[in-house]
Structure formats: structure tokens, C-alpha cells
Amino acid sequence: MIKNVHGNTVDHLGEAIVAGRYSAGSPIPAEPLLGEELGVSRTVVREAIKSLVAKGLVSTGPKVGTRVLPDDQWNWFDPDVITWQSKAGLTPEFLRDLQDLRRVVEPAAVRLAAQRASAQDIMEIEAAYAGMKHAVEQGGDYVTHDLRFHQGLLRACGNRMIVQMSKALGALLRTSFEISTTRKDGPKGSLPLHRAVLDAVIARNPGKAEKAILVLIDGAHDDIEQVLASRRRLPRLSQPASLLKAA
Predict the structure, then answer these.
(1) How far, in Å, CA of 32 to CA of 148, rounded?
(2) Which residues of the chain have pLDDT under 70?
(3) Strand partners, 140
């Protein structure tokens, strides 16, 4: 998605803060200096700072200027914050926090989906599964379809707060799936596991759906831990999704 001047300015400053260019408690340059550095007006800088305040990255006040807040005050449910962290470099702590969040939220959401999913919800999840299957058999963008599958399940739960949370979870899912696709036959092996989740939702069996999604989540957890142990480079959200080659 192409962003406007405001969006690009927010991204530039947000990425700099998350990457540690400005440490917690330190001030960031005054608006005129930032405007000159970025080639934008003071008004654009001022509005960008307001966005960063809303995301919990900075605070502003008279005589103290704009100062960076500690990362435990950042809004980790904001997709931009997660994306900036990915660009700065995914840390083991960051991935494990998000993996814990996924294990808490997704099974409960899938239980609700098995009770509440509409015919349209099922159709969209089926379409995402078909895209995954096609990518495994014919080659293509497996990760995007995998992401649509899981986000479709979260939408199908019918809870507006969980649906909103899915925007942040999407960053974790994308990262998890990028890691999984690097494992030999990882996507191929996960297909029947996804099918089990979908079949349980279609059958309106909440308990079975929850157990099936936990198998997938725990498998993703194992994949991430193996990659962390191997010290391989982690995927970045700024890069295109990996394409599978035809078998």
C-alpha cells in the first residue's frame, strides 16, 4: 500500500525509535530540525508526532519536548509497531510474547467460530484453504493464503474485539508462516492439519476445532524455536511472501 507524506513520516520516525536510534527517555529533535531532515513541513511533523503519541512511543509536554517512552508502554496491538519491530529485527522475546498471545486468543476464537461461522465465513475460509492447496501442488504464494485462512477463522468468531486484535496477530501469523515455509515439506505437512480445523468448524464441533488449532499453533512454536536455536536470519515483514515451487 502506498502511503502519503504523513504516513511516510510516521513510518520513518517510528522505525527510528523502535530500532533504538532514540533511546527511552531521550528527546527526539525539534519539529523544525525533523522537518528539515525529512524534507516535510512542521505541520506534517507535528501530526506525525501525534500519531506516535497515540501508539505509545513518545510523550510530549511543555519544556520537556517530545521524549521516547520505554517499550513496555508501546502499543503492541498496533500493526505499525509490530511492523517496525520486524524491520528493526525480530527478537526472541518479541516472537515468544506474540506466540503466547496467539495461543491464548486463537483457540478461543476458533471455538466461537465453530459455533457462529456464517455460510459466507465458511466459503472464505474454504477459498483460502484451496489457495494453500494450489500453492503446495502447483507452486505459488502459500503464505498469503495461509494468513487469509487464519484471519478468516478469527473473523468468523463474530467478536469485534478479537477481529480488531487479528490485525496485530496477522503480523505474527505472517512471520510464523514465513518460517514454516523454510522447512522441507512444511506447507505440505500442514495442509491436513488446516483441513482438520476447517472440518471441525463446518461440523460445529468447538472442542475438536480447538484441539486442531492447538496442533497447528504448537507446530509453529516448534518451528520458531528451531529457527531461533539455529540463529538463522528471521524473515522480515517488509519483504514479499515466499513463493513455493511446484512439486
Answers:
(1) 43
(2) 1-2, 172, 180, 232-247
(3) 244
Strands 58-61 and 65-68, bridge-based pairing: antiparallel
pLDDT digits 0-9 by tens, 21-54: 999 999 999 999 999 999 999 999 999 999 999 9
Residue 168 C-beta-side C-alpha neighbours within 13 Å: 21
Report the percentage of the chain scoring pLDDT > 70.
Answer: 91
CA 159 remoteness from chain centre: 19
E strand residue ranges, the chain: 58-61, 65-68
Q: Give the Cα separation of 125 and 163 in Å (integer).
A: 15
- Distance between CA 97 and CA 72 in Å, rounded? 12
The whole-number pLDDT of residue 220 equals: 84
- Cβ(31)–Cβ(45) below 8 Å: yes
CA distance 128 to 167: 17
Set of cell numbers at residue 232: 538463522
Domains of the chain: 5-70 (1.10.10.10), 79-230 (1.20.120.530)
Return d(Cα 178, Cα 170) in angstroms, integer: 12
Per the listing, cell 513455493 goes with 244
Entry pTM = 0.79
C-alpha 125, offset from chain centre:
19
Q: Which grid cell sits at 141?
A: 504464494
Q: Which residue is associated with the grid cell 478469527?
A: 154
Q: Report the C-alpha gap between 80 and 84 in whole angstroms.
A: 6
Distance CA 22, CA 167 (A): 27
DSSP 68: E
